[in-house]
Each structure stands twice: as C-alpha cells, then as structure tokens.
Write a sequence for this structure.
C-alpha cells in the first residue's frame, strides 16, 4: 500500500512537471471556478449576518397621532409595561425623529424646513423579546396597539427582513449555479489535461497492463496529480478571495457604500475556506476519473 | 495448465482468426505453435493472457476461465504469464534496467526485491553490461533479450513468445532458444509461436500447427 502510494506520488510529480503549462492551466481553471463560487459565498455569508443582526434588532414602531393626549400616552405606557413580549420602550419625540432623519439622510437635511415645520410623528419604539420575534407574535403585538387611542400606525420591519432573507437565498443559489457552471468548465479542462497525459503515455500504460498492473496502480498517479492540481487551484482561490476581501475592506469607495460595506464585513469561516481547497482536490479527482473512463485506455 | 475447448474467434470486421480449436498444454511443457502468417498464432497467444477473448468456446489457464474472469482479476492472471512480444514493446525513455524493473514495480515488489530480481535476470541474459543504455543504444538481439528478461523477471508459470527469433541471426536464435529450454527446465510452461521450421526440427518438441485458424496437426509432432 505504502509502496504503491510512493510510486503514485513519484509518478504524479513527474507527470505534473512533464507539461507544466498544462498543469498550471488545470489548476487555474479549478481556481477560477472556486474563486467565483467563494465570492458568492462571501456575499451570502455577510448578507446573512446582516439579516441576522437586523432580526436581532427587531423593533415595533408605534407612531402617534399629532393630537395624542398625555392621558392616552400614559395608558399606552402602562399597556407596554404589562405586555410580556416587550423588553424595552423608547419614546422618540417629533424633534428626535427629525434629527434622526437629518443624520441618516444628510443630503435631505433641509427637507423638513421646506415642507414647513416638522412632518415627523412622535413614536414609541418597542424592543421585542427574542421569544416573540416570530411573524405571528409580531402580528399580534402590532394589531393589539393599532386600534389604541392616540395611535396613528404600528409598523415593524418583518417585511424587510423577509425580503433580505430571500435576497440572500437568491445570491447563494446564483453563486451555486455559476460555481457549478464554472466547475463544469474546470472539469472539462482538467479532463482534457488528463487525457493528453494518458495519450502521451499510452505505450507505457499498455505495457503496464500487459505485465499485470491493476487499474488502480495505473490510475493512481493520474488521480493524485489531478487532486494536487485541484488543491492548488483551491488554495489559489482562497488566496484570491482573501486579497479581494482585504481590497474591498480598505478601499474608501467600498466602505462609503452601505451595501458594499456589508459585503466587506467578514471573511469566510475557516471551515468554508478549507472546504473550498478540499473541493478543488475533489474536483480534480472527479475530472481525472471521468477522463480516464472516457479515454478507455485504463 | 492451458486448455482450449472448441475455441472460435471472429473479429468485428468478420475475419475469423480461430475456428473450433481444442488443445491442451500440460504444466512444464515446451510447445511450438506454428503456421504461416495469418494462421492465428498471435490470436492464440493473446487468448492465454486475455488480451483477446473467444467468440465461442472456452479458454482455461491455470484452472481459470479467462473469458468469464472479472476485469479486476485479469492483472493477476497476467502476472502468471510472461509474454515476449514480436515487436518487443520496450519503453524508449527507460534504460535497459528500468525497462525490466518496471514489470516488478507494477506488481508491487519492494525496492530491494525489484533490484535483486532485475539484476539476476539481466545477468542471466547477459545484459548486465548494458544496464544504463537505452533501447535504441543496444542491438536487435539485446533488445530481444531485454523483452525476454522483462517476461521472466516476475517468475511466471507460463512463458509465451511471439516469433522471438524473427529478427535474429541463426547463432543468436539458437542462443535464445537455449535460454527458453533452460527456463523450461526450471518448470515454466513455454509456448513459442514461430514459422521457423528448421528451429522446430532442431528442438524436437511438441508442435501445435495452425492453418487459417484451424488446428492442422494436433498433438505431438
């Protein structure tokens, strides 16, 4: 077993260096497909995190009517205090709402003045306990205050969260789709490389078979070489992703954009990076197996 | 050791290489397979190491039915059969030593065993002064001996040789035949395909004669 492995390693190494350009091309093909897949994963991982954060900050906004009375506000506060779903209550005055708008949208700072006065309503921000963050519970809370005296409207950000979750799923599926397409292209490239090597060594393989070499003994070096090319491709892809991530993280252009800054958030977990590299090796092995079967020589 | 039962071989193009051939070769026998070109000698040999399978009939080698044998068993059959090919089938990028050692490596012998067996067989065949030469750097006779060395190095039970003296001058042909006789005297079953009638007469061994794929003179010559 160990002897056969030593033979495979030696032959695989020789095979890789017999045509370095082809070997490099195979590794690059796998590298590119995994890089693209990784890029989408990176996007999905960070978007996911963003959505999770949003979910954690789930709040219910209770907007008050202009003519709300202090009594009505007191009643509302008492109801909030006795509601088991509510963790904390924050009162946002009309002035606070205006300042918040001016802070979030600096280019529209003077809009409140232009429309005359302060169009933003006062509101209560209700922080919801973890156990009550399901859509049904949020609906119940929302409905129970909708009809209360002095309340204009009750809103919560569930729709937003759900929409973002759908986007994350779409991004992930898109990544898988494109990754699979590129992986197929990589399979073809690596397969062609293996086939060329098999053709170049046809005579040797023929003699090996005639003197009693098993299929495993003949295939071993090809598979090992393809796995090495794939692994190198995977490592290249992870390195490329790391560089891209750093670049996005440091470039002012990306940081200024709230959406891209989400993407630049965090790098892939170590497990995912390792899986990408191992996936490269697996891709190489599959390509070699398919190609050896198709070549029919072995 | 080798049994052919009503073996017929038809190729896809319609040509019939063997027709209803039944023959037995005993363990340790030395047999000549003869007949004109195209008589089916090479097909006969190829069936013994399962490079071809019969279209009908049965070929049994060392108690194994080669036609129904699963593909994964074929390498182990071939390790029992050493073959000297008519065109030698040497690897031009490997030296004399490497060409022979190659066969021992393929069956998974240890490095030490590979070297020891290869040196032994090359010495026996008088090639120990050519170890580091490439096939193109040695004579036709030496290439022939390289091919024999590779067939013998794994100590097969059966040795097949397809026209092993075809490219050799008479002295060298005699020398090679003497070598086959020695190998046979150690218990290896030897089948030699040749159309050299003088050689067959001189050796005085059993002859299987084929003509247009049919057994022309079964039994002893």
């Amino acid at each position: 077993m160990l002897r056969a492995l030593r033979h495979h390693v030696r032959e695989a190494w020789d095979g890789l260096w017999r045509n370095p350009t082809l070997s490099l091309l195979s590794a690059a093909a796998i590298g590119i497909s995994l890089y693209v897949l990784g890029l989408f994963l990176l996007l999905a991982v960070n978007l996911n995190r963003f959505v999770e954060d949003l979910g954690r900050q789930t709040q219910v906004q209770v907007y008050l009517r202009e003519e709300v009375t202090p009594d009505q506000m007191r009643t509302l506060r008492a109801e909030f205090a006795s509601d088991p779903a509510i963790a904390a209550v924050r009162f946002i005055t009309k002035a606070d709402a205006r300042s918040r708008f001016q802070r979030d949208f600096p280019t529209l700072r003077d809009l409140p003045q232009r429309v005359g006065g302060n169009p933003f309503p006062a509101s209560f921000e209700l922080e919801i306990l973890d156990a009550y963050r399901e859509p049904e519970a949020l609906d119940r809370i929302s409905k129970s205050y909708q009809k209360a005296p002095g309340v204009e409207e009750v809103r919560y950000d569930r729709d937003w969260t759900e929409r973002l979750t759908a986007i994350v799923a779409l991004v992930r599926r898109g990544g898988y789709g494109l990754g699979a397409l590129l992986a197929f292209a990589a399979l073809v490239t690596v397969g062609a490389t293996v086939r060329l090597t098999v053709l170049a060594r046809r005579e040797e393989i023929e003699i090996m078979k005639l003197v009693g070499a098993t299929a495993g003994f003949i295939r071993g070096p090809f598979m090992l070489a393809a796995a090495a090319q794939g692994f190198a491709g995977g490592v290249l892809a992870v390195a490329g992703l790391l560089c891209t991530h750093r670049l996005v993280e440091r470039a002012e252009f990306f940081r200024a954009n709230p959406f891209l800054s989400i993407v630049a958030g965090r790098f892939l977990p170590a497990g995912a990076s390792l899986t990408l590299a191992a996936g490269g090796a697996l891709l190489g092995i599959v390509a070699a197996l398919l190609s050896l079967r198709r070549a029919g020589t072995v | 050791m080798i049994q052919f039962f009503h073996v017929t071989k038809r190729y896809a193009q319609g040509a019939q290489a063997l027709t209803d051939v039944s023959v037995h070769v005993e363990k340790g026998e030395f047999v000549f397979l003869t007949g004109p070109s195209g008589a089916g000698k090479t097909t006969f040999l190829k069936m013994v190491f399962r490079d071809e399978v019969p279209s009908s009939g049965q070929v049994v080698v060392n108690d194994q039915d080669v036609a129904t044998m699963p593909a994964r068993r074929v390498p182990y059959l071939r390790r029992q059969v050493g073959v000297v090919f008519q065109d030698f089938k040497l690897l031009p990028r490997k030296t004399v030593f490497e060409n022979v050692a190659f066969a021992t490596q393929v069956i998974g012998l240890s490095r030490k065993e590979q070297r020891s067996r290869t040196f032994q067989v090359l010495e026996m065949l008088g090639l120990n002064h050519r170890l580091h030469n490439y096939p193109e750097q040695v004579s036709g006779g030496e290439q022939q001996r390289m091919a024999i060395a590779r067939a013998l190095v794994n100590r097969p039970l059966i040795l097949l040789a397809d026209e092993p003296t075809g490219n050799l001058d008479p002295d060298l042909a005699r020398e090679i035949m003497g070598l086959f006789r020695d190998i046979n005297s150690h218990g290896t079953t030897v089948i030699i395909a040749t159309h050299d009638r003088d050689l067959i007469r001189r050796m005085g061994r059993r002859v299987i004669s084929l003509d247009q794929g049919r057994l022309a003179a079964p039994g002893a010559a």
